[in-house]
Amino acid sequence: MRRHCIAPRANAGTRLAALGFALAGGAEREYWNESAAWELTRADVAVLEAATLELNRLCLQAAGHAVRHDMHEIFGIPASAWPLVRDSWHRGEPSIYGRMDLRWDGTGAPQLLEFNADTPTALYEAAVLQWDWLIGTRPEADQYNGIHEALIARWRAVACGGAVHFTCMGDQPEDRITVDYMRDTALQAGSDAPFVDIADIGWDGTHFVDPDRRVMRRVFKLYPAEWMFREAFGGHIASAGAQWMEPPWRLMLGSKGLLALLWQLFPGHPNLLPAYRTPQRCGGPEIAKPLFGREGANIRAPGLETDGPFGDQPCVYQAFRELPCVGGNYPVLGSWVIGGRAVGIGFREDSTPITRDTSCFVPHFIAEPDTMPPRAAH
Amino acid sequence: MQREMAITLVMLGGGMMALGAVGPNAQDRHCAALRQSGQAGTDPGCAGAHGGAYYYGSGGHYQRVWNGQEYVEYGRPGTSVVRGGFGAIGRAFAGFHLG
Fold this sequence. Notes:
The complex is a heterodimer of chains A (378) and B (99). Chain A is α+β, with helices and mostly antiparallel strands. Chain A has helices at residues 12-18, 28-31, 42-68, 72-75, 82-90, 123-137, 147-159, 173-188, 225-230, 250-254, 257-265, and strands spanning 2-5, 36-40, 97-103, 111-116, 165-168, 195-197, 202-203, 208-209, 218-221, 243-245, 275-276, 286-290, 300-301, 304-305, 315-319, 330-338, 341-350, 360-362, 364-366. By secondary structure, chain B is an alpha+beta fold. Strand 7 (202-203) of chain A pairs antiparallel with strand 4 (82-83) of chain B.
């Protein structure tokens, strides 16, 4: 795994605009950084894929264990919401996607920093923008990126051509990018995919309905489950008969409490870092992460502290292994899991060891010749 | 297009009109009789195979419309709907990325 400094495409801005990628305040040009690129070997990809699959297996085992033993407290899930989570697990409600954030320097075992299992973003960048960059700059190269195809296949399997409502806070450009891309993949899978702002979801006494009074049976939501449970309609979720994606059981994996449970169940596993719900047990420097914190907010580590709105939450304490630093950049690998398969990655970089909402997305490529059958372009 | 047409026809029918051809068998005659008497929405069996629509639920508060692929369900106009029960916490965190 190697980082290259390269010349960005002369038409990079035009390409981003053509692909509909625009962030608030024009921040997309700072966020999307193609003045660098990561080169992977096929052996690197094999390591990342195997680690992701193994971690996904551990996570599902941990979730099953937590349900069997009613361990909602380790995740910080309130007792009142636990039946929703537990029943969702028992019903085997399908997940669409998740992103594991991994620490890896190209040697040894990649290690799980956290699992964005409920509301992962940076999806369009990973699936489409970096693929477009590859085609435009290195058409002879390859990329570890089957995200787009996997999403379409997943929608086919989960919705079987039936309608899926899509919801988020409609006025948040970053969220809309992810949701609109998800809608596109569902449409390509043969589903009707109407969008509903989360604030426009209605309750008619029995079901959730959209602004046309259409009953919402399958709903993809890019809105944290822990928020939904606490809001005015939260009490209706259990009886409304809607299939949510991500389903409530994913909250177990989205909570940083998962890290402590994983270490409890699989201590010493090479893909895990020591983690506990109480401080000073890791035997060295620790990083404190709020259970439902996001984008590096309210993190505390030796010599590091970030602000944010999650400071009142309980934390998980994970052994602090600083990210590898290459040319002043600290990369985190976001490894995508779709339908139980490891299907691609995206690199985020920051100038500090904590990945935040301002961290850049950097594309990657595989320079080695492809020995696999050719894949279809997007 | 199929879905929109089905919905339009249902609306034009004053709230209920089964769609599709009626064949010469007992079930179709039964359904035709119900339609004639304005009770077509009371029998789900008069809908699915014929691409129709029907009401269901307590008080007939819901309508299923076949869109050629699946039933699309609608609440009956006039039924009370409350909105705004999701999104409050998100508004408090507006501008903060989900991750």
